[in-house]
Structures are given as structure tokens and as C-alpha cells.
Amino acid sequence: MPDTVDLGQSTMGQAPLGPAPRHVAIIMDGNGRWAKMRGKPRTFGHSAGVEALRRTVEAAGDLEIPYVTVFGFSTENWRRPKDEVAALLELLRVYVGRDLDRLVRDGVRVRIIGARAGLAPDILGIIERAEMRTAHNARLHLTIAFNYGAQDEIARAVRRVAEDVATGRLAPEAVTAEAFASRLDTAGLPNLDVLVRTSGERRLSNFMLWQAAYAELVFVDTLWPDFDRGALEAAIADFRRRDRRYGGVARVE
Ligand code: FPP
């Protein structure tokens, strides 16, 4: 258990806090800048980023957040220099390979979303092993977006809808938001409550465009390798102070 879990309950004179988030997503940005500030190669920042992910997953478990989704490698990251792409692909092995036993023990269910086509067989093996070994866990659902781009995910889901309509498994009038969502990589996961992006950037960068429909966006200046339990708690406190209306009217105080 953490020493202190103050998710912002001390709100003297302020509006009451909303509920804790069920699904927190994070765009883990700023590894390169963090490394540069230390005169180190960008890959040094990515390794430090793995440590930050480890800390954050542990903190999320302690804080009883049931769903955490992180952006590990995007379909656009292939445009980076070859050496960096190789290092980024390696991160999955570094994180999952080294932490899998602990994740299994800690009740973490690991899911990897994104395009499988184009990934090397050894990476696919790591993904399958992680998903299989944690399939019965339910304390914390950790989803790692890897070779992921939201537009690609949506296009693949559209293809599934088209195939199902063409083969008669789905009537055109049955193509609802729910039917569509059940064909996304995130089928079965709740939509995002909060989307955190580190490093001061204020973009979605093709991440969870469908699932973020009503997400509260929290942008923090912290570079990802410096992210920790306190930063997660602060992001959650910020979220809980928001007045979520989903297109309705302000909540009654
Ligand atoms: C963005 O920082 C970060 C990434 C492209 C990689 C994120 C990966 C991790 C934090 C490690 C965990 C990953 C997995 C797959 C388990 P950047 O390099 O764009 O930083 P910059 O904007 O400062 O250049």
C-alpha cells in the first residue's frame, strides 16, 4: 500500500469531487527530451520510460484503477531512425519479458492492441505468452497499444463490419455504435475516462480516437521518465475536479 493516497479529498470550499476514473489512458511522451537533457542517446530515455511504466502500473494497482491503457509504439513510429525503431520494438520484450511473472502474480491482465501484421514472430510470441499467462487476471487490466494507430484500428474494424455484412452475419441496420465498438481492438474495455499526456504536448496523436469520445484530457509538463505515483495521483485529482456532462447539463451541487 502507498504511504499516502490523497486523491484530492481535501477540497475545503470546493465543488464535491466526481468518482475515481475506471479507465486511465496515458500517452507516455518525452523520453527523447529527458535523455537529451542528460546528454544521453534517446534510447536511454526509452529505457527510463520502461521504469516509469513499471512504477505507474504498480501505483495504479494500489489506487485500484481497474483499467490502464498506454501508448507504447505507434504506427507512425516506424518513421524514426532504424536504430531507434529497433530499440522501441525491444521495449516490449524488456518490459513484458522481465515483468511477466510479477504481472501474473499481481493480478494484472495484459492485452496488446494494434496491428499484428508486420510484427516479427518473436514479438508475436511475447504478445501471445503475455496475454495467455494473464488471461485469468482481473485486478488491473493493462492494455499496451503497440504498433497502434487509431485510424488503422478503425479501418480494421470497418473491414470486419463490411465482412460481416457481406456474409450476412450482420444486417446493415444492426450497424450501431455498439456493434462497431465490439469490432475494435478494445472490444470489452470501457471507454476512457481520462487521457493523460506527458511532456507538455497537447495532441491526441492518433490514439484512441473512438474510445476518447468523452475522455477528460489531462496534459502535464512532466517528461514521461519522471512520471511516478504522485504524478498519477495528481492527474486523477485533476480529473475528479472536472464536471463531466456528456452533452447534458451541469451537475447539481
Ligand atoms: C515518446 O517519447 C515515447 C515513445 C515513442 C515510446 C514510449 C515507450 C515507453 C515509455 C516504454 C514502454 C513501452 C512498452 C512497449 C512496454 P519521445 O521519444 O517521442 O520523446 P520526445 O518527444 O521527447 O522526443
Structure description:
It contains seven helices and six strands. It has 253 residues and is an alpha/beta fold. The protein has a domain at 23-148 and 192-240: Decaprenyl diphosphate synthase-like (Undecaprenyl pyrophosphate synthetase, 3-Layer(aba) Sandwich), CATH 3.40.1180. A six-stranded parallel β-sheet has the order 3-4-2-1-5-6, sandwiched between helices. α1 crosses α2 (42-62), α2 (42-62) packs parallel to α3 and α3 (82-105) runs parallel beside α4. The two termini are 33 Å apart. Farnesyl diphosphate (FPP) binds at residues 28-33, 42, 46, 49-50, 53, 72-73, 77, 88, 91-92, 95, 144, 146, 199, 224. Farnesyl diphosphate is lined by residues 28-33, 42, 46, 49-50, 53, 72-73, 77, 88, 91-92, 95, 144, 146, 199, 224.
Low-confidence runs: 1-11
CATH architecture of the domain at 23-148 and 192-240: 3-Layer(aba) Sandwich
Count of distinct strands:
6
The CATH topology label of the domain at 23-148 and 192-240 is: Undecaprenyl pyrophosphate synthetase
